[in-house]
Amino acid sequence: MQKKSRLGLPNLGFGVGLRTQHLPEILSGGLRVDWFEIISENFMDNSGYTNSVVERLSTDIPIVMHGVSLSIGSASPLNRDYLDKLKKLAGRVNAAWISDHLCWTGLGSHNSHDLLPLPFNEASLKHVTQRVREVQEILERPLIIENPSSYVQFRSSTMTEWEFITELVEATQCGLLLDVNNVYVSAHNHRFDAEHYIRSIPHDHVVQIHLAGPTLCEEYMVDTHDAPVPAPVWELYSLAQTLTGGVSTLLEWDAKIPNYPDLLAELNKARHLMLNGVMPDTLTSTPVASVDKQTVLSTPIDFQLTNIPSNGYKNSYNGAK
Ligand SMILES: [Fe+2]
Fold first, then answer.
1. Among 305, 179, 170, residue whose Cα is nearest residue 240
2. Could you tell me the distance, in angstroms and rounded to a whole number, from the CA of residue 240 to the centre of ligand 1?
């Protein structure tokens, strides 16, 4: 039987991460994207205003759930309560799919509030494989796993990250969220060939791509999500879209967040590239270099909501696309 590309999931087009500061403009001025990605944890235990907005948006536009707390690589048991809430939220927003990271975030009751890397070896592969299968059974859908950015490697690793991911996909039939910026970041930090990584993964399981802008902090590339996508990441994106045959594109921008039109202008470079086959001439050529030695590593966990707006937008929502 022929395998279905993207696990039979649709190419949603071009989207952005939904952030609270953009809600007024989105609700009054129109969506102007093809889909939104939400941070799952922001909506699981929250029955407030933003929840009702997202539920309403989900009747007009696809919503994808992106989590930061699954901790698929942890040695602690899976959190059944978390998974039940995840499944309920997926029903409420009619989620196109559910993704999380190939990482661990804590042990027992201790939460590191970071997406920590795994050693890549037979033992960790067996462990993660069993947990992905369990999660997929509970959620009753494929789990979409994102490659993380990383800054350390383990002496106990016996395989590369792309070999680990390929084996994991074969064993579980999970999907992949290919973050081409994370490949670029980790390739810089660990001195591997980013293009080889992208050529080596199982392309028919890639469901979605993440784009973002990193920061060069002395010798390390840091996944800060606070800058335009640099040209080398666009090159990897173009390669990934060619190899996958075209998958959903999501621009992540989570610190120093620009206004909505500027965010869309960056996203529309991806549209331009896919429509015209050439890079726009407004690309940032190299990653932003940090001039601040106090730069703190940001992770998607930092992007969970802290301020839920309490008023103002509901009546101005016009549902425009
Ligand atoms: Fe990402």
1. 179
2. 15
pTM of the model: 0.90
CA of 148 to the centre of ligand 1 (A): 7
Output the pLDDT for position 301: 52
- Name every residue whose Cβ is closer than 8 Å to that of residue 70 and which is 6 or more positions away in sequence: 82, 86, 100, 101, 135
- Please tell me the distance between residue 137's alpha carbon and the centre of ligand 1 in angstroms: 24
Ligand 1 centroid – CA 125 distance (Å): 21
Distance in angstroms (rounded) separating the CA atoms of residues 29 and 46: 25
Q: Is the pLDDT of residue 208 over 90?
A: yes
Q: Given pLDDT bands bounded at 50, 70 and 90, which one contains residue 308?
A: very low
- Domains of the chain by range and CATH? 5-303 (3.20.20.150)
CA of 144 to the centre of ligand 1 (A): 12
In whole angstroms, what is the distance from residue 217 CA to residue 220 CA? Answer: 5
For 165-175, the pLDDT digits (tens) are: 999 999 999 99
Tell how far the Cα of 315 is from the centroid of ligand 1, in angstroms: 33
Separation of alpha carbons 281 and 19, rounded Å: 28
- Letter for the amino acid at 53? V
CA 22–ligand 1 middle distance (angstroms)? 19
Phi-psi region of 177 (alpha: psi -120 to 50; beta: other; left: phi over 0): beta
Give the Å distance between the CA of 27 and the centre of ligand 1: 25
Give the per-residue pLDDT at 306. 42
